[in-house]
């Protein structure tokens, strides 16, 4: 079966209109077309992030992890960082900062839970942190954290707040300016629906003022090296520090154009509806969702606990049915779950297909599933 | 004029067969197709680098600069590094290492020259260096260094030798194994002829044995974090550290397939012939080439000194003629030159076009050019 | 919603691997690549048609109707033709022949029925016909005729038998040689899964021997003008009569390559399974299928009678749900039905999507549909 | 060498922006996008033809020859037709009409010449013709006929005038309305720069009034069967007679959009400049052009007489140099010439490349060519 859908956590199923925008054999980084695509993309990135003109957008090579590491551009030797971790990608903040001469404290939640706002508030009262680093939607468990509430509680107690929005930007409500967050970041291959290859972030003025030669950052991911390039390109002037992913930027600009056409609010609602459909289907099959409470459900990732079958077998068995899903990666739940990514250009038809394939495959592999109940539940949700 | 050629230093004109290989809306990093494309690409990368089975290939997100920075994965606090710099990208080695707790010495050549093997040998005799970092072809001036001779002179006097082959791999003779070089690196958008988005490198066993938690490297560009992923993918097993540029890898694998079909020797000869044509055309117009001696001429980049005109005007004027060239970036020659990139899928027809457009544009802008002499010189070269 | 599926009667949803094969800006009809693609395609066409080396394949510009009209190349002034019509495209045979100086008799079936083999046999016994023209699957009603039985009954009583396989070739069992049929034809945009632009047919030796300047045919669709071109191209020699659709031929060759990889038997089984799923879903919603008996069900087109709603409203309402269906075109059933095409690269997921969208849309528009029953029926079929 | 240019008479080198417009896997002929693309294309076709609202545009499957044959829709049994032939494609008018019950007279010119307006005028004075059929640019010899002058002389003496503009529309001045021509036709793969697959024509009101069931035309190419479809689609209403080449229409609409952006006048001037460059290069090599006088030179095709070498050898030898040319097809000049097509997205760089390759190849094969003189002549032309 050649035609598939990719219900993954990134890359995800990509619209061919986006992919075709990268079909350019003759366009360099000094061309007006590229410069315009960058300028447009940076301007749109602010809107996508709920940021205003006071924020500086960056589009740099790499992905989510490199964008996270670029936050070291704001830190100096000896700074104290608090990491609020709800899973593997929360822990990644810690692993990154541990490579640098900064002190790192971590508050962790159980898998399926998020760290309570109370606990974060308590931590920042007890200790003076330069930076609090959080995760909006934890990709390893599909848990969405109450970023707004936490931000409100800690905003005036810490210098910088950074949010990993890798699995939220473009699919969840993101209010960088309103919450006065200093760094909001994402990656091209997630809810934006472009191939992997770029990290995208916005920096508050406070964050920008911290860029300096004294930061602990290295070279390539040091935002101080990129800021003039970003400003020049936004002003439609050619500029170079290291080569940007030219073809990807054309795809990004096309995706942003399509997002603008759909409307950001509509896009978020679409993700919400799709996520509801996925959960309705999963629950009707009697399976548990890793995220433990409805407030923790995300619009983009649903992690699913299996009962009898091996999740690796599920992932293998859905492939010939035209579906690719994502493996579970949280070590505490190893061998117990798989993930369904539902972001980007995903639609209701993808939900029906996913649940239909899962019903058949899970039943075949031995889960106690009643064929037809999952798809029926989805249909009722979509009415 | 919509159809152009891109005689740039990267990205370069790309064959649409390569671009079309990335047209996949439904393929994730866990898919067999991707895993196979990575496995094939890593195996072919060894051949491209003149490396053997003892070398470990890496294909990581980013480009040339990030690949250079990943060499910090081999260094520990206090290590001494010698940088051999022939221009802007030689200096970049220094700028990178300066962000880390290592000591850096630099030997520099005048623009258009390369550092003499004697001088490198003398330096490594006087001081014990963990690493000597060099540049094969200096992209800012088009100067090719005598890597083989330098390597032979210093091999037994230093622990590690790293070569930036960004503007050489795929277009110049590269003999990593024969010269016992520890790190040879390049980027996807240069002579390999793929869009920008990946750094490619091979590490000797000696280099691999230096990967450790004690290195000065950060996280994303830390090869210790990537090595298991690379080994697993080469063995056709799915693996994840951070998201690889899936679509770009499909293009890379297609480019490697085409390189294999053309034959690496033929490809290098093609670049040689093309470079000869470019130089014949430029010289017949009475213009000087930045590289000062024939031994320093490269197969991939020709930097051209202008006499009367402003090179920025030249770059602007060639665009409506269907040609995009690269600006000069060496600060010592600012405003005095431009660059012609000739790598990847470049052919003799591109040479004729480039020289024809330059003749007309330079004459129009006031250089003393005799129309027809440049293209005639190219024709005589190609007979 | 940008991503759609096209459950139409042609063009149908096309795999991007097929579409990408046409991305060639530089290939003329004299190029070896084109000549090879034609040669390969003609050879494969024989297999697809169940023909052997004694049959002459043709791939000519146009589509199904032009391929039908090219059958006039076999007729001479005054010849008698019998048309066996089960609907709009059966009648099309008559409309075509009526433009020429031949005598045409027609036997017709009610919509949803096919003309009985007995009746055809009787007709050819009563009258001497040069040609009997039939339709394998009538696209207007989705009715499949018992071609094999009819052919066996009439084979020795008529000179030539021509079958319109537009909605069957590639999805139903086609046995041109075994049944000694003289002309079997199809179009690129149907079960072969390529964009519209070519008619494809095979001619028996008997049919080839009828090509002459005395035929009633015109010029462009006169197979006598094409036969040498076809023979030359199959022998990998360049040849020209009128310009062939070069880019489409590259897509056709890629589609044939994918069909060969899937296996023709597997492909037919896939269509069968998909058709069963569609019918199970439709019937579980309490809707009638136009084809009146199971023997008349086709693997490629299901025509669906609505009860209360306007079928034009259904077609309009499914579009924003990411689905495009085909209108009913049989005048006797005007305003009473719509069609679902299920051919080409169609898969089980497309069936679930189609039935899910139809359930919701039909219910919303007022049909008495129980949500979830259609998709459940499909699931049970696919277990 | 993978990257080529196609200096052919159709298909020609196609811009990838045009090709990418056809990358749609999910769009049927009932979709709004298709209907809009058809509507836009028909409206633009009038402008391209120099026609006004009183003309009816048609875009039908096939190409130039099928468009020519569709003119039979205007003829009735016994009508008299005058064919004015300057070569192979002029003769094609005759071959077509000979298949129908109409009387055909032909006036012919020597190869390289065109039939004099005097001679046409004389012919239509001596005999009453329903239709005079001419060729604007004779593709077999590159000869451009003085259509305007002929049309003025004969307009009031014949009922219908049809012009084959296959190698002129989009690249030469076309004044259908001003000259009161009844049928002007072309094909998608010529100066419009789209893959082959459609014939395009406009009909005057007088021509439209001749469409009837009494015409001699067949079925598929009978414009009476298409006219309602064309009118409906122009009015953005879905309509069907036989399947249109959906994907090609998207490419056509994109090409028309690019032509509109370039400006039709600019496009014609570009073709003129390119043709001058080609001729300057050819003449400077001492080779003769088949078109005998400057008034007969066309903007789109240059036929070149060779002296010593075999033209088939030339065509073969240019291929590995990245160039594809067209063979000579005029029987009177068999083995003595080849053709250079220069239409569509052709630019000055293609001219330099073509002449450069030809210089080298012709010299290598034994023509007395001085390397460098051809390209110099082109450069002087382009200053």
TrEMBL record, chains A, B, C, D:
Domain Aminotransferase class V span(s) in chain numbering: 31-333
GO molecular function: alanine-glyoxylate transaminase activity; L-serine-pyruvate transaminase activity
Pfam assignment, any one: Aminotran_5
Keyword Chloroplast tagged: no
Coiled coil: none
InterPro entries: Aminotrans_V_dom, Aminotrans_V_PyrdxlP_BS, PyrdxlP-dep_Trfase, PyrdxlP-dep_Trfase_major, PyrdxlP-dep_Trfase_small, SP_NH2Trfase/AEP_transaminase
Entry keyword set: Aminotransferase, Pyridoxal phosphate, Transferase
Needed cofactors: pyridoxal 5'-phosphate
GO BP terms in the entry: glycine biosynthetic process, by transamination of glyoxylate
Family as reported in the entry's similarity comment: Belongs to the class-V pyridoxal-phosphate-dependent aminotransferase family.
Protein's name in the database: Aminotransferase, class V
Organism (species): Metallosphaera cuprina (strain Ar-4)
